[in-house]
Amino acid sequence: MQWKRYKAVFARKALTTQGWQKDVLINIDEGGLISAVEDSATSPPGAPSFDLVLPGMANVHSHAFQRAMTGLTEIASGEGRDNFWSWREVMYKFTFGLTPEAIEIIARALYIELLKHGYTAVGEFHYLHHDAQGKPYANVTELSDRIVTAARAAGIHLTHLPVMYETGNFGGKPTNDGQRRFLNTPDAYLKLLGELKKKYGDADDITLGVAPHSLRAVKPETLRAILEALEHCPMHMHIAEQEKEVADCLQWSRKRPMEWLLDNFNVDARWCLIHATHMTPEETATLAKTGATVGLCPTTEANLGDGIFQAEHFLTADGSFGIGTDSNVCTSPWEELKMMEYAQRLATRRRNVLCTESTPSAGRTLFARAAAGGAKALGINAGILAPETRADLVALSMEHPLLHSRKNDTILDTLIFGATAVVTDVFVAGRRVVENGAHAQEEESAEKLRQIIGRFV
Ligand code: ZN
């Protein structure tokens, strides 16, 4: 779908790199980048005008198909032992029923929902590559193509992260049958990347990255080969999500997962480490200094019983983080940020934990850091309102009575902690993909999802 690209957007209030500004005119060039940000401006004819404009939020970690599992894994198995690993078995079985068409339908519906809540880019950590029997499709990029088609139809920027998966656990342990749709040899994976580069390497609405699944699913030599084959793209990897994973890594290498990675690889700003839940204070401080981003998925991490990330220490060490929807049980960035702070409060029995001396507002700290860190992790120049960055913009209504008296950072505190965020319009690279709270395809997309969702009960 072709959306009109706007030349300017006017905001009565906006959060720019200069701070909170009034009567802000955001000029947009033909390539979808912001060309100028002027405050105390007047609204030119034809420019849409909004109460409040914020930079769009990046969703650094999604497994789109898992959206269709929502609500199907919350029933106890009866043994009192439900955990991440039992959830994973259910998820593996779920993948067997997914056709390429269903994957596209679920992803499109999800991406529309993400946009409507204020996400403007998504990092799709894409590990379904083969058919239900584990046989490669004749077109090796079949399922990647479905994800790209879904993202383009929705109008969200996609950072596509095809996953390398080859082993069942640390030390090259064999995989199990549930993982059959994920598996590739290093050669087959590099071929897949080559095909994707040919198809989408020049596209301005797609960023290509790589995703070695985890240290338990990829051999060290494969990790090195992937890094060497692709020097500049985003590199995402799950790490230290579960205590069992840490114990298994210790048994294999006598090192914890993050310790092993930091000792063996040059982790830098191109890396996005997903979860990083179980780290020592030393690992946390060292990781913060590398410039890598941590991809936190607070709602999914709570849903799966992962544990709580050492966010306070990481923030104190000036670490970079983004937020992700992961299993997609929550599609709202506002809820995700609230969960992130609340987990810290519950763990520390204090309040306003994720703040800094220069930014005492929890809402402002969470929003600004996640927007900037998330964009960096997705390899896009976004997450702030400034010239030469992407015009990924989210407009919100200030009509809620509570917002009437709120000023500057307390607006974000109210939006996040009061759950009153009403996103009215969303622009992706200057294109208005959500208008007055609606997405042009949401009805049709929802109807298609209704037609297939019955297969998954
Ligand atoms: Zn994940």
List keywords for this structure.
457 residues; alpha/beta; Urease, subunit C, domain 1; TIM Barrel; 2 domains; seven-stranded mixed sheet; five-stranded parallel sheet; 35% helix; binds zinc ion
Protein described:
The chain has 457 residues and is of the alpha/beta class. The chain folds into two domains: 8-55 and 385-443, Roll (Urease, subunit C, domain 1), CATH 2.30.40; 57-377, Metal-dependent hydrolases (TIM Barrel, Alpha-Beta Barrel), CATH 3.20.20. It is built from 14 helices and 16 strands. Helix 12 crosses helix 13. The longest helix is centred in the first third of the chain and has 18 residues, at 100-117. The radius of gyration is 21 Å and the shape is globular. The structure holds zinc ion (ZN). Residues 61, 63, 125, 238, 274, 326 line the site of zinc ion (ZN). Zinc ion (ZN) binds at residues 61, 63, 125, 238, 274, 326.
What's the topology here?
Blueprint: E1 8-16, E2 19-28, E3 34-38, E4 49-55, E5 57-62, H1 84-95, H2 100-117, E6 119-126, H3 142-154, E7 157-164, H4 186-200, E8 206-208, E9 211-212, H5 220-229, E10 235-239, H6 243-253, H7 257-264, E11 271-275, H8 281-290, E12 293-296, H9 298-303, H10 311-316, E13 320-323, H11 333-348, H12 362-377, E14 393-396, H13 409-417, E15 423-428, E16 431-434, H14 442-453
Parallel strand pairs: 1-4, 5-6, 6-7, 7-8, 7-9, 10-11, 11-12, 12-13
Antiparallel strand pairs: 1-2, 2-3, 4-14, 14-15, 15-16
The chain binds zinc ion.
Overall pLDDT, averaged? 96
**Spatial shape:** globular
Number of separate strands? 16
C-alpha-based Rg, rounded: 21 Å
Pattern of helices and strands: EEEEEHHEHEHEEHEHHEHEHHEHHEHEEH
The low-confidence runs, each spanning 5 or more residues with pLDDT under 50, are none
Estimate what percentage of residues fall within beta strands: 15-25%
CATH architecture classification of the largest domain: Alpha-Beta Barrel
What share of residues is helical? 25-40%
> Briefly, what CATH class of the largest domain?
Alpha Beta
